Amino acid sequence: MTDTATVAARRQPRLPGWVRRLPAYILVWAWTAFTLAAILYVVMSALKTKREVLRSGWNLPQEWVWSNFATAWTVGRLGEYFINSLLVVGVSVFAILLVSTPAAYVLARARFRGRETLTNLFVIGMGIPIPMLFIPIFGILSYLRLSDSLTGLSLVFIAISIPVTIYLLTGFFASLPSELEAAAVLEGCNDFQVFWHVMLPLAMPGVLTALILNLIWLWNEYQLSLVILNSPQNRTLPLGLYSLQNAMQYTGDWPGMFAGVTIVIIPTIIAYALLSEKMIAGMTMGAVK
């Protein structure tokens, strides 16, 4: 009876692969269309007058008001906040990769006592909710006299991002063939030379993936910046955008607010557009061991 049912099941026609994947395709394209529509609406609204923003909806601007960007950049002080975010995020991402890349290589390729325990500690660090760290972080920075400073914020960004970056890069280094490492050792390379000249170039797609993920997250980070920074001159771009939104509610300059949102999202879009192929290649390489 079982054999008969099995044969009958095998004889039933199977749906083509594209039909079975159709719901996933529809979901992806719907989300892509929604995202592009939202970005398009923000950019168009940033180029309209106040009256057009409230009345024209999805219509193209009748008059292209480029001065909205100048208003957000100068009056809204987004120019100062942009420089602050650029410095903090740039230094933080560089330091994160500088520490995480060799650490991930050692954890993935070396064999020593306590390696698995150390790796598990980084995994545990990934699971700690960031809001639980607000009070300890503020207390430590106050003790070190680094509260309300871009230096303190950068140190916090580095400390919080290292566990997930090491975990990500460990998978990339573990997927690399060990034969190349052994060949480099036979050629007389020491451990650092093997890492720098052989393994790091091969793992560069993974490093670029970590760079993009940290760049996008830190560029748009809001909660930690709100807790650590108090002075207006030290605000990062997300904090500046929030203050600009509050100001625009009283002035009614909604095009200026949309211009500020455009200024915030443009760098991440450019970075992703330039490095997306490397990121996808790196994620694929890290998934196959």
Are there runs of 5+ residues with pLDDT below 50, and where?
Answer: none
End-to-end gap: 42 Å
Task: Give the class from helix and strand content and strand pairing.
Answer: mainly alpha
- The average pLDDT score comes to 84
Fraction in beta strands: under 5%
CATH topology of the largest domain: MetI-like fold
Quaternary state reads single chain
Specify the CATH homologous superfamily of the largest domain.
MetI-like
Work out the number of β strands.
0
CATH architecture of the largest domain: Orthogonal Bundle
Residues in helices, as a percent range: over 70%
- Shape type: globular
Taking the sheet with the most strands, its summary is: none
* Number of H- or I-type helical stretches: 15
Determine Rg (CA atoms, Å).
Answer: 25 Å
Task: Provide the succession of SSEs.
Answer: HHHHHHHHHHHHHHH
The top level CATH class name of the largest domain = Mainly Alpha
What does this entry look like structurally?
- With 289 residues, the chain is mainly alpha-helical.
- The protein has two domains: 45 residues; 220 residues, MetI-like fold (Orthogonal Bundle).
- Helix content is 78%, strand content 0%.
- It is globular and about 70 Å long.
- The two termini are 42 Å apart.
Topology:
Elements: H1 2-11, H2 17-20, H3 22-46, H4 50-55, H5 67-75, H6 78-109, H7 115-126, H8 134-143, H9 150-174, H10 178-186, H11 191-202, H12 204-219, H13 223-228, H14 237-251, H15 254-287
